[in-house]
Each structure stands twice: as C-alpha cells, then as structure tokens.
UniProtKB/TrEMBL annotation:
It comes from the Archaea. This is Zinc ribbon domain-containing protein. InterPro entries: DUF7560. It comes from Natronosalvus rutilus.
Amino acid sequence: MTTYEFTCPGCGQRGPVDGDVRNATVEYGCPVCGTEVSREHFLVH
C-alpha cells in the first residue's frame, strides 16, 4: 500500500497517511482544523 506524507496548508499538521485516509482528508478536510485540502498536499512517501 502506498504511504503519503500529508502537510495541512492551514495548521501545518504533518504526518504519514495511507490511501484511505488521504481520500477522506481530501473529501472532508484536515482532521485537525478542517481546512480544505487537495491531492497536491500529499507527497508519495
């Protein structure tokens, strides 16, 4: 499974996530602050 490094543009939260979490974060926003994010905020780790 692919792992991504997420960085929130709003609060700066960073951390590794899997594909399911990546998809949910793009759909619902940052789990910490709710800022909208796009796939560009995830780098393949």
